Amino acid sequence: MADKEATVYVVDFGESMADCHNGRVESDLDFGMRYVWDKISTTVAASRKTWTIGFVGLNTNETDNDLANGGELEGYDNISVLQPIGPMSMTELRELRSKVQPSRSYGADPVSAVVVALTMIEQYTKKLKYKRRIILVTNGESKIDDEELDAIAERLNESKVELVVIGIDFDDPEYGFKEEDKSTNKKNNEEALQLLVDKCTDGVFGTMQQAVEELSIPRIKPVRPFKAYDGPLTLGDPSKYESAISIHVERYFKTKRAPPPSASTVVVSNGVGQSQAFKDEDVDMGGTGFSGVKQMRTYRVNDPDAPGGKRDVDFEELAKGYQYGRTVVPFGESDMSITKYETKKSFTIIGFIPYDSYNPFINMGETGLIVPQKMNEEAELGLSALIHALHEVESYAVARYVQKDGAQVQILLLKPNPGLEDDFECLYDVPLPFAEDVRSYQFPPLDKVLTVSGNVLKEHRLLPNDELKDAMSDFVDAMDLSHYEVDEDGKPLDYAPVDEVYNPIIHRMNQAIRARAIDPDSPIGPPAEILLKYSKPPKKLLDKAKHEIGNLIDAAELKKVPEKAKGRFGKKDAVKPLSGLDIDSLLGGQPKRAAISSENAIPEFKQMLNAAEDDETIEKAVKQMGDIIRKLIKDSFADVFYSRAAENLSVMREGLLGYEMPMLYNKYLKALKKSLLSGELDGDRREMWYKHIVGDGLGLITKEELDVSDVTEEEAKQFAK
Amino acid sequence: MAWGDDEEHRFGGDEEEEELDENDYKTQKDAVLFAIDVSSSMLQPPPSSDNRKSDKDSAVAAALKCAYQFMQQRIIAQPKDMMGILLFGTEKSKFRDETGGRSGSGYPHCYLFTELDIPAAEDVKKLQELVEEGEDVDEVLVPSKEPALMSNVLFCANQIFTTNAANFGSRRLFIITDNENPHGNDKQAKSSAAVRAKDLYDLGVTIELFPVSRANKAFDLSKFYDDIIYRSPAEESDTSEGVKASRSGDGLTLLSSLISNINSKQAPKRSYFSKMPFELAPGLTITVKGYMPLHQQKPARTCYVWLGGEQAQLAQSETVKVDSEARTVEKSEIKKAYKFGGEYIYFTPEEAKSLKELDSKVLRIIGFKPLANIPMWASVKKSTFIFPSEEGYVGSTRVFSALWQKLLVSNKVGIAWFVARKNANPAMVAIIPSGSLNDEDEDSTVPYLPVGLWLYPLPFADDIRNVDIKAPPKPADELTDQMREIIQNLQLPKATYNPLKYPNPALQWHYKILQAMALDEDVPDEMADLTVPKYKQIDKRVGGYLAEWKQELAEKAKEFMELRATKRELEQQDMELVERPRPAKRQKAAPGSTAGSRSSGGQMSNAELKAALENDTLKKLTVAVLKDVLTSKGISTTGKKADLLERLEAWIEEHA
From the list A276, A404, A501, which residue is nearest B460 (CB)? Predict the structure, then answer.
């Protein structure tokens, strides 16, 4: 349930707000609006109809507010409601943008503006459940009438309105800011506002420097706790065994991956406009801008009688099914559920394992947390006993979990957290893999070398010697993050704890999107420093570990592998089988393979190229391979030989890249394309071109890829069309 | 499909920029051809024995059983990958009979039993009949008088790969034989075979040899196979994974030994990333490759089938992008934009690129921490395995090994910034070592996983959910002591969780039914679900303790409840004292309802809810309170008041 919010921004537009102060190159208004726009755009981004915003201008040239309009009250001049409270979308944002500029006016009372805002909120929210807030931004040059502060504060409290005053160049000893040459007028006004805030039950008084600085600290979108499970956690089967125990628990998510903002696929719709933000088609197209793109699916089946061997079928003609290998098994709509494993909601312990038999890297995903049902004494004491017992014998429980009827079975590892440090007694759970989720990969051992002849070596160039081991040990210890910094009490501070590291992409994208929404014409700024803070070791640590790093570099004796030397001719390192037998000489001994055969084209082409000692041989090989490719395509019924032809082509491409003869390939490909698209190769061969050649990246060899090519990237792109 | 409670994962209508390369990585297809030697020694049944556990299979039978299991696993785990079975040394010869192919005489004593392809139901059935029922109707398992020429076998395999698995990223030939020297001293035959083996190498086919050793005699590779086998191009170092001979003995049957050797090669070793610069410190970079030994396997998705022809046929779908006027949109017109406040915010492709590119592909250590400093709840995603490679920096392996050893010894982990590829979203990872330094400790805690370093993704602050509930710790007591006994008596076998013992029942059931339907067999109505706890054993082992514990719990809970009631009463008395002067207005919020007197419905206990249901006072709750209650129970709060009430009533009846 989205909480309802009503926030009114009161911003000082007075003529002094147009000046720059304290060495800033932007005006006070621009400086303050940085904060305000950021807040407003965050609300816009949330797209929630119940998060409403109003905007009041202080020191506007005109006067437009209900209190002054009535004509009975004084002291409400030069205060204008620029936007009544309501939901905020891009339309309102743009309108508001055009209205925010410094005025020639001065002297309107900020506290009066707060009262205007308060009245707006009272009228809009009535007695309903709302989060109410007034945010006042001013440089404090405008005179305040401080006679009625008590009454106003009382009214604010009564209406449960939070008052936030963010002053430009206001003093804040806590943050550490003091304006030295402050005018007496400003000083008095600051004091009056501080007094007002102090009288409010819910009030914040701060300086703009701090507010702006904190804008770069990412804000995390709060997500409501989601209860995934509410039911018994059992040990044994209570339906069959009297001994079985059952504890009523609730399970919530502890971690859940937050996705970065996702882009939609759009096209520029008719009547293109130049501006960069436009209405969503769902809302109102307005005749210009971007519109969403939908996917349309068509279905085809093989049909030997149809041209190209395939024909379209209507969706209505299709049944649903599953594949078993390459056999398709059609299902009627009613049978679809038959392959679904029937499960009942349950959560039951399979057994226990000691801490040390578990490795965190077998976790398959996100964590949950398990607490007893509220106000259920048996559950509270029972679960607590389980948690303490697990903790004492250093064990985890392994459980079978079915979130609800019909959900998939999961195996969860339950870890006890007796709440000794965080005062939160619970079980944490992580999913474990099933048999099918494990792929068996073999790797050679890291601490010994097994030779082909079966010997075990403990000293080898692939193994670290003692010097390297010692250097590594010193390096790792020197680079320790867990205690290189200490807090005021001398207790070690853990560097980069999980809850202080923000997802850089999410916040980078969000910041850029908000900035673009507020000001479509500005270029994208650099990412906020805090987002890249953990991309490198802290400098202080590196300085400290300088000596150890140097030692490790010396002991490692690493050598960078030079870029592949592309020797043209001459014998390359011959590839040999385990025995080291020189196959090439065997080949040489046999009657020379005169021409490349279609059936064994790839090995023979490679071998011919490898043995080549002049351009002529290579040209010959390419010519032969080229003919084989054309013949394969020509003989292909529908697409049966296409992948084979494509593989041959890719081998040719690779070979010519190696010999730095891109022209030969490009020439062949140009001719091939012509033949493919002209129907010269016995029919419609466009699929070969688009899907297999362009799709597999077998296009022209460009200059970027190989220096000696004369084809530019752009040409290659055009050619691929 | 109804597989999920993973709606939160599923993306909306918009096309997402997913993590592409994991998918790219899967599209690299694999083709495996089994080449099984059918000689009289391979066919010889094992000596009979009374021992129930002794061998019953000839080597050929064991090989075919392996192939059968391999085929079934492949259908589940790698549905896009191919396999085939070629028998050699057979009296009969058979290659494909389609026109254009070679006739059977081209490869004497080679019998292509299963064509290299994605297995079909018929293939499974045919192999099943041969393996399980021993129905060799075509008499293929008859050895020839003269052995097959290995050059022929290899070229036959070459042709099968060339035509059937063109453009496959991984092509592997599994040779199963007990003959270390098929050609004796016949030099000509040996060189021909070596040449054909080189052809296969050039074609990108890896030969995996599964030798069967007889009577504890080692299989001598140098006699013949050293000329045939190449080190796979992926292994650039001198190290060798070694060829393991399968044998019977040591309590293992030949079949289980062969299965374990072949299973270890089930999945082709595909790297998830390679040439990854691993920056240990400024000026110290090595290269590593990444792998994904853990991957959540899901049942295949439904497909659309066309039934208009003679055979059910899979309909291939193609998507076209259309705009709001149903006009087909060209690829060049497509732009990416972000929804914001009901509109689209647009970045040029260059801007979008620069936004995503925070760093280039790198794995960079920023420091080290004790493993214990990683909170136990800090898990979001499966880990990636890394292993050194010498492709970028010579010496990478020894530095990697030194780091691995140090982390194991000190029980520390590296903390690193990780960008898996250009434009990938950066992640923070803990680098955790697997394996053990102790040579004797052969069965380490995770024998099914490789030894090296793991990149364990750490959650970001954004990924942590704040759960706004209180769970104050309670002191340990007698209940804890009793529970300890229970825990210690219910350890899993070998005191570890071995995933290989727990097949996913949903997957198993899905494919079991599917197989039955595809093969036209009876659909089973039951299946052993190995994830279900052994209830009987639990009762037998700890039934007594459990009963005692339950009784104790009931007593303690009663005491606790009474204590609470007294406390509440006292509090209420205090409250009343305070509350008396309050205006009557306040009580109008929920007249006559005990439930409503609490400020927040989320705090209502189940007992109170139940009472409210029985007294029919639930409907007097305001919508706001109702929503609070529902939210606290994790129930949807959409709809009208009547809907909310209905949902809450249902919940109370079920739970309270």
Answer: A501
Is B13's pLDDT higher than 50?
A: no
Query: Which residues numbered 435-464 in A keep a CB inside 8 Å of some CB on B?
Result: 435-447, 449-452, 454, 460-464
Q: How confident is the model at residue B466 (pLDDT cuts 50, 70, 90)?
A: confident
Which of A376, A407, A498 has its CB closest to that of B459?
A498
Indicate if A362 and A260 belong to the same structural domain.
Answer: yes
User: How does pLDDT run across A190-245, given as a tens digit for each residue?
Assistant: 999 999 999 999 999 999 999 988 887 888 877 778 899 999 999 999 999 999 99
Which pLDDT does position A572 carry in this prediction? 53
Interface of B with A in 322-351 (CB under 8 A): 322-324, 326, 329, 333-347, 351
Answer for the pair A352, B490: CB distance below 8 angstroms, yes or no. yes
Is A374 domain-assigned? yes
Please name which of A364, A368, A219, A527 lies closest in space to residue B457, comparing C-alpha atoms: A364
**pTM for the full predicted model:** 0.82
Is B240 part of the contact surface with chain A (CB cutoff 8 Å)?
A: yes
Check CB contact of A585 with chain B, cutoff 8 Å. no
Q: How many CA atoms lie within 13 A of A64 on its CB side?
A: 11
What residues contact residue B399 under an 8 Å CB cut-off, 6+ apart? A464, A468, A472, A556, A558, B280, B284, B286, B388
Number of domains forming the structure of chain A: 4
Task: Name every chain A residue with its beta carbon within 8 A of the beta carbon of B371.
Answer: 360
Query: From B606, which residue of chain A is nearest by alpha-carbon distance?
Result: A375
A128 with A61, same domain? yes
User: Same domain, yes or no, for A209 and A273?
Assistant: no
Q: Are B3 and B299 contacting, i.e. CB atoms less than 8 angstroms apart?
A: yes
Cross-chain Cβ contact A90/B265 below 8 Å: no
Average confidence (pLDDT) over A280-289: 41
pLDDT given for residue A687 in this prediction:
85
Provide, as residue numbers in chain B, all residues whose Cβ is less than 8 Å from the Cβ of A551.
none
Q: Which residues, listed in sequence order, are joined to residue A164 by a DSSP beta bridge? A: A135, A204
Final residue before a domain boundary, out of A188, A214, A240: A214
User: Can you list the positions of beta strands (E) in A332-421?
Assistant: 346-354, 368-372, 395-402, 409-417
Q: By the CB < 8 Å criterion, does B288 face chain A?
A: no
Segments forming the whole domain that contains residue A513: 505-535
Q: What is the structure's pLDDT at B9?
A: 30
Q: Does A599 touch chain B (CB under 8 A)?
A: yes
DSSP bridge partners of B33: B84, B173
Phi, psi of B88, rounded to the nearest 5 degrees: -130, 160
Does B610 participate in catalysis according to the annotation?
A: no
pLDDT at A371: 95
Token code pair at residue B429:
């990872």
Q: Alpha carbon B413 to chain centroid distance?
A: 25
- In this prediction, what percent of chain A has a pLDDT beyond 90? 46
CATH number of residue A600's parent domain: 1.25.40
Chain B residues near residue A513 by CB distance under 8 angstroms: 338, 340, 345
Of B162, B240, B515, the CB nearest to A324: B515
Instruction: Give the dihedral sign, CA A513/A516/A522/A528.
Output: negative
Per-residue pLDDT reduced to its tens digit, B359-381: 899 999 999 999 999 999 999 99
* Rounded distance between C-alpha atoms, residue A336 and residue A318, angstroms: 14
- Judge: A263–B336 Cβ closer than 8 Å, yes or no: yes
- Mark whether A52 and A180 lie in a shared domain: yes
Any domain includes A295: yes
Q: What is the ipTM of this complex?
A: 0.84
The pLDDT score that the predictor gives to residue B525 is 85
Indicate the residue type of A513. I
**What tokens appear for B175 in the block?**
């040779």
For residue B301, what is the nearest residue in chain A, using CA coordinates?
A322
CATH of the domain at A261: 2.40.290.10
pLDDT at B587: 32
Question: Is A492 an interface residue toward B (CB < 8 Å)?
Answer: no
Q: Among all residues of chain B, which has the CA nearest to that of A417?
A: B376
Minimal CA separation from B354 to chain A, in Å:
9
